[in-house]
Write a structure and sequence with these properties.
single chain; alpha/beta; 6-stranded parallel β-sheet; 14 helices; 16% strand
């Protein structure tokens, strides 16, 4: 990847693809983590004498739904940067062109939600060309969208001098590093709901890691493949065969694949549902497993404490419900206290760290969800490849 060190931006307009796909609440930004993550790149470009045209998506609009406007984001970004951030009335068009052309060094213009344009997700060359006409150079700092070949992530990069922003650069360097040069032992913690969503990650770590710790609802296809009863637990039927194959590969290879040995079960998916801890992993009829048990949590914490490097993606249970948060909290605290490099994938794992007040105690907290998983799996990310 080309980096900002290789891009001359003084006195130039720079189109910056950012990931401001943030949650909104009653017309205001509810969580500005992704906005803050982009600030180092934006400030560096401004300090070097550039003016900025920012482009981002927000949600999955079907038309121009006003509730998916980036107006609240422009306001919050302006507060964080300490300067005015103008919001364009659209993504392209004569008025947008005029606003971009009027920018002076230090000026910042945020385009409206790029997914208001249907050509964005189709990687329409005409839209890419219109975006390119707004600036003299292009910087992609939206790692969370780098696995998409869209007009603003891949198409426009082919048309302008380009570079990776500091966030995208750090994401790729850190994630690649834990795959290619990890300190040993390497511990991978994989949770979440579906084996099929994470099987590529599990298979990659079966080749690279010393131990994989499994949690979340994805543990039940593993248990079912071994003949255990899962009761009313969320158990993805399509995940049973991949889980069985992963266990066989682990048994034949050099990586231990660890499963829970006790569970917290409940009569319903609700915070006030009757619940109890059971030794073993068989779930009786009428009950569902909603967390790993305390013995498993302690065992996993010991593995993490011995790690030279840790990668974690996916919660251990329904941590959003207080009675079933202990397993995820124990893993989060162990990762936060681990002596080696700790890399946490985006999504629910990041939300858990934030919920437990531990987000600033890991080496790297990824802003990517699907992009993180695809990079770990070894897939090519179009938005990254275009920056070569």
């Amino acid at each position: 990847m080309r980096t900002l060190d290789e891009l001359d931006v003084a006195g130039r307009r720079v189109l910056v693809r950012v990931d401001f796909n943030v949650p909104l609440d009653d017309g205001a930004v509810a969580d500005d983590t992704r906005i803050r993550a982009a600030l180092p790149t934006l400030r560096e470009l401004l300090d070097k004498g550039a003016s900025l045209v920012l482009v981002s998506h927000l949600g999955r609009p079907k038309a121009r739904e006003p509730e998916l406007s980036l107006r609240p984001v422009a306001g919050r970004l302006g507060e964080l940067l300490g300067r005015e951030v103008a919001l364009a009335p659209g993504v392209v068009g004569d008025q947008v062109q005029a606003m971009a052309a009027a920018l002076q060094p230090g000026g910042v213009l945020l385009l409206e939600n790029v997914r208001y344009e249907p050509g964005e997700t189709k990687n329409d060359p005409a839209l890419a060309q219109e975006l390119a006409s707004l600036a003299d150079a292009y910087v992609n700092d939206a790692f969370g969208a780098a696995h998409r070949a869209h007009a603003s992530t891949e198409g426009v990069a082919r048309l302008l001098p380009h570079a990776a922003g500091r966030l995208l650069e750090r994401e790729v360097t850190t994630l690649t590093g834990i795959l290619e040069r990890p300190a040993k032992p390497l511990v991978a913690i994989v949770g979440g709901a579906k084996v099929t969503d994470k099987i590529g990650v599990i298979e990659r770590f079966l080749e690279l890691a010393d131990v994989i710790l499994i949690g979340g609802a994805m543990m039940f296809p593993f248990f079912k493949s071994q003949g255990h009863e899962v009761g009313g637990s969320l158990c993805e039927e399509e995940g049973i065969a991949p889980a069985r194959d992963a266990l066989a590969k682990a048994a034949a290879g050099g990586c231990r694949l660890e499963l829970p040995s006790d569970l917290v079960i409940a009569e319903a998916f609700a915070a006030d549902a009757p619940h109890r801890t059971v030794a073993g992993v068989d779930v009786p009829p009428g009950w569902m497993g909603l967390d790993i048990g305390p013995d498993t949590a302690a065992r996993y914490a010991r593995e993490i404490a011995r790690a030279g490097a840790v990668f974690w993606n996916g919660p251990m249970g329904a941590f959003e419900l207080a009675p079933f948060a202990a397993g995820t909290r124990a893993v989060a605290e162990a990762v936060a206290s681990a002596p080696g490099t700790t890399v946490v994938g985006g999504g629910d794992s990041a939300a858990a760290l934030t919920q437990f007040g531990l987000a600033d105690r890991v080496t790297h907290l990824s802003t990517g969800g699907g992009a993180t998983l695809e990079l770990i799996e070894g897939r090519t990310l179009p938005g990254v490849e275009a920056l070569a």
